[in-house]
Amino acid sequence: MSNRLKVTPNDLSAFWMPFTANRQFKQAPRMMVSAKDMHYTTSDGRKVLDGTAGLWCVNAGHCRPKITEAIQHQAAELDYAPAFQMGHPIVFELANRLVDIAPKGMDHVFFTNSGSESVDTALKMAIAYHRAKGEGARTRLIGRERGYHGVNFGGISVGGIVSNRKMFGTLLGGVDHMPHTHLPEKNSFTKGVPEHGAELANELERIVALHDASTIAAVIVEPVAGSTGVILPPKGYLQKLREICTKHGILLIFDEVITGFGRLGAPFAADYFGVTPDIMTTAKGVSNGVIPMGAVFVKKEIHDAFMTGPEHMIEFFHGYTYSGNPIACAAALGTLDTYKEEGLLTRGEELAPYWEDALHSLKGEPHVIDIRNIGLIGAIELAPIPGSPTKRAFSAFVKAFERGALIRTTGDIIALSPPLIITKGQINELIDHVRDVLRSID
Ligand SMILES: Cc1ncc(COP(=O)(O)O)c(C=O)c1O
Questions:
Q1: How far is the centre of ligand 1, averaged over its atoms, from the C-alpha of 30 (Å)?
Q2: Is the CB of 415 under 6 A from ligand 1?
Q3: Helix (H) or strand (E) holding 217
Q4: By the 8 A CB rule, do 81 and 326 touch?
Q5: What is the mean pLDDT of residues 22-39?
Q6: From ligand 1's centre to the CA of 150, what distance in Å?
Q7: Backbone angles phi, psi at 425, to 5 degrees
Q8: CA distance 231 to 145
Q9: Looking at the predicted structure, is the pLDDT value of residue 9 above 60?
Q10: How far apart are CA 106 and CA 142, in angstroms?
Q11: What is the mean pLDDT of residues 321-333?
Q12: Distance CA 387, CA 380 (A)
């Protein structure tokens, strides 16, 4: 083992870890040193089953040869080319390949480096689009309670997770929020999309009436809310949002950073639900999480609204040094090849019934108050320890890791989202780990 891997706790102080209980971690570090397919190997040589595809991103599994080779080749061939006023072939190739698998009508792609950047890009596009069309008063943005749209200022403004917002001042002005769609009293232990709650979409009509449609640029939602602990859209809810947005000339943005690239058993949630947004934000699965990348898909009409004025002028004053970075593009192409060869963008559809039954077999286990599932996503909600919210789920997470499974928790909810290559046997193994953990925690 190389020296780099033999870190001692004293070496850990310089790195301020993101979204981490730093002090707890540094007392008892959980270190991964390698990964292959469905498993990590820890610094003490244990195999850990990846029940979360990293952070909902490693959809094709770990260290897949096509992706590794593509990156190696590209790094030796063209490491970087300026993203502004210059191009390189594979970024165009990638945009075409992405449009080929995108929902019909989403004809253009803008590259970013993360989900957060995709979201802020989409919000800026929406406001600038209306202005380009002569409707410059349309600046308001509508998000949803409990929504997660990354951590940049635009994303936390339209997002609705209190702990991600409350420390950071007044955020963007002119933002309103629809209610979330979590109705445990009516929908607990529903398999798949819940029956009750489509009427919550009508809250958008109330918000539109309050502000007037002429001031609203866009509505942004996750088709399935992930990071808040998996909240599903009630039957018919997304269709209603689409109708209301269309009626009022408001752009509908689907944040597909988690749902994109096969997570629901269809290439995108837009395909799964049969509802096409105007803008779609993605990241994570676009490059299998291997090299940072995000992609914002837009309808032709939106793109074309910018393509006016003198031809030597920049049409959209926005972009990142690493938009369409060649190595990230190579990783994404290797990823798309892997998805295609192995049918991964639709594999979840075959596995979903098995996954659903396995998850719901946890009903009746200690602490479990709800189970939710869709595609290859699952959530097991635990009753909180009175006075110590999140503690029970966090113990479950630590215990699961010690036993050999990576799960993810938010609040008192365990969220599962394995790589799309998972086998039925590995689904059983993952659920057995969770069952044993639930039986062993207080
Ligand atoms: C729906 C959604 N949007 C945006 C993001 C932010 O992505 P990133 O962490 O790549 O900035 C996430 C991350 O989990 C997400 O789930």
A1: 23
A2: no
A3: strand 216-221
A4: yes
A5: 96
A6: 4
A7: -60, -40
A8: 11
A9: no
A10: 22
A11: 98
A12: 20
Burial 249-270 (b: 16+ CB within 10 A, else e): ebbbbbbbbbbbbbbbbbbbbb
> Are 414 and 407 contacting, i.e. CB atoms less than 8 angstroms apart?
yes
Q: How far apart are CA 439 and CA 278, in angstroms?
A: 46
Residue with tokens 């950047």: 117
Give the ligand 1 atom nearest the CA of 222. Answer: 1
pTM score above 0.90: yes
Query: Where would I find the H helices in 188-268?
Result: 203-211, 237-248
Question: What is the Cα–Cα distance from 338 to 193, expressed in whole angstroms?
Answer: 29
**Cα torsion angle, 150, 396, 260, 279, sign:** negative
The length of the chain in residues reads: 442
Task: Return the structure tokens found at 129.
Answer: 């689009």
DSSP 391-410: HHHHHHHHHHHHHTEE-EEE
| Paired tokens of 257 | 């950073």
Report the sign of the C-alpha dihedral through residues 58, 358, 346, 235, in that order: negative
> What per-residue confidence (pLDDT) applies to 15?
96
389 alpha-carbon distance from chain centroid: 24
To test the ligand 1 pocket, which listed residue (232, 258, 286, 291) has its Cβ within 8 A of the most ligand atoms?
258
Q: How far is 36 from 225, CA to CA, in rounded Å?
A: 28
Mean pLDDT of 64-77: 98
- Give the alpha-carbon dihedral of 348, 352, 355, 359, to 10 degrees: 120
- Report the SS3 class of residue 308: coil
Residue in the structure block whose two tokens are 């979330």: 180
Give yes or no for residue 258 CB within 6 A of ligand 1: yes
**Amino acid in position 367:** H
